[in-house]
Amino acid sequence: MIKTTFKNTLMCGVFVDDLPLHRIEIPDGKAPRNLVRSIREQGLIEPPVLLETHYGEQIFRILAGIRRLQAIREINPEAHVVAIIRNDAQASPAVTITENLVRSRNYASEIQAFRELHKQSLSDEDIQKQLGLYKRDVKKLAQLSNLSDKAEKALENGKIAPSAALVLAKMGKHQQDDFFAEHPESVSRYTLASVKDWRMKQLLPDSQLSFLADMPFN
User: How confident is the model at residue 134, as a pLDDT?
Assistant: First the structure.
C-alpha cells in the first residue's frame, strides 16, 4: 500500500493506494447512471476523501465521494481504490455537508458550511465536483444561503420546512423578515401554503389586481 501526502482545495491528508471497498462505510443507494458509465469507461479520476476510524478492524468513513464509491461498488464489489485519508475528526464545511447527506439533513448547519466554502473562493461547480454532490443539492444550498437571519433561525428550529424556506429565499431579506412580522410567533410551524400565499400577495398586491373588478366576464 503506497502512501504519499496530498492536498486539494477542500481536503488534505494521506494518499493511499490499493484500499479494499469492504474497509469503507459506503451507504446504501445507487450512483447516477452517467457517473457509473464514466467510471466504468475512464476509471476513478478524482479519489474520495475518507476519515480514519478506530473501532474493530480499521474502517474508513466517507467525507467526500459517496456517489463515486457507490458507482465503483456497483461495477465491482471486490474492487480496491485509491483514496485520500484524514486521520482526525476536525470539523470542516466539507465534512458538515457530506455527512449530512448520509444522515438526516440539517440544513441550517449546511448553509453555514456552504457559506464558508464560498469564502474560500470556491464556486458552486467546485463544491459540486469536489464533494461529489448532485447539482440540485448545490443549487438548493445556494438558494437557502440567501435566507435572512430570522428565516434561517426558523429553519434551524423546525418552524419552517425546507420547501417553504426555499420559496421565502427567493425574496429579499427585508421581505422575508416582513413575513415573520406579519405572522404570530405562536404558530407552531409555517406551512408551504402560507409562504406561497404571502409571496404571491407581495408580487401582486391588491392595488395591482383591482382592474379585474372592472373586466367583463361574458
Answer: 81
